[in-house]
Write a sequence for this structure.
C-alpha cells in the first residue's frame, strides 16, 4: 500500500505536489481526510480501551493479599479518590503526548476509574489524537515519501539524523539519571 497519492507521481516517476482533485497533503493514497480520521479514531479507541481493561484485569488479579491491603489504607484510598475525580482530564490530555497515554490508560483501569467518566475523557482524547495524527502525521508521511522519491539520499540522511538525535537524548537522560542516583 502506498501512502502517497499516485496522482502526485508523473510518468518519469518524479513526485509532485499538484492540485489534482482528491489529492492533498491530508490524504493517504487518495483516501479522503474524514475516512483516514475515522480509521485513526477507531484504532486509538480500541488500543486505549484494551489498555484500560488490561489495567482492570491486573487490579482484579491483585485484589487479594498484601497489595490489596495497601490499596485499602486511608492514604491510598484518598489518592484513588483523587484519581477518580481528576483522572479524566489526565486521560484526555495524555493523548496530546507521546509515551504517556499507555501508562495513564493502564493506571485508570488499574485504579478502577469509573467507566463512564473514563469513556468521556477517552473519547475527547481520541478525537484530539486522531486530528493530530491525521493532519500532522499524514503530512509528515507524505512529505517523507515525496522526499524519498525525489531525493532518497536526503531521506536516509534525515532518518540517520533523527536516529542520532534520539540516541543522544536517551544516552544523556541515562547518564543524568545515573548521576542523580549516585548523588
Amino acid at each position: 500500500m502506498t501512502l502517497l497519492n499516485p496522482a502526485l507521481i508523473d510518468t518519469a516517476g518524479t513526485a509532485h505536489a499538484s492540485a489534482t482533485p482528491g489529492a492533498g497533503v491530508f490524504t493517504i493514497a487518495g483516501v479522503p481526510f474524514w475516512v483516514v480520521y475515522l480509521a485513526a479514531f477507531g484504532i486509538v479507541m480500541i488500543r486505549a480501551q484494551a489498555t484500560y481493561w488490561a489495567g482492570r484485569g491486573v487490579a482484579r488479579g491483585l485484589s487479594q493479599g498484601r497489595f490489596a491491603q495497601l490499596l485499602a489504607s486511608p492514604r491510598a484510598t484518598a489518592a484513588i479518590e483523587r484519581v477518580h475525580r481528576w483522572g479524566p482530564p489526565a486521560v484526555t490530555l495524555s493523548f496530546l503526548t507521546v509515551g504517556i497515554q499507555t501508562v495513564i490508560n493502564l493506571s485508570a483501569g488499574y485504579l478502577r476509574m469509573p467507566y463512564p467518566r473514563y469513556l468521556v475523557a477517552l473519547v475527547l482524547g481520541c478525537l484530539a489524537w486522531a486530528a493530530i495524527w491525521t493532519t500532522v502525521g499524514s503530512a509528515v508521511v507524505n512529505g517523507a515519501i515525496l522526499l524519498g522519491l525525489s531525493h532518497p539520499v536526503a531521506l536516509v540522511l534525515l532518518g540517520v539524523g533523527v536516529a542520532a538525535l534520539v540516541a543522544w537524548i536517551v544516552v544523556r537522560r541515562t547518564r543524568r539519571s545515573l548521576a542523580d542516583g549516585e548523588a
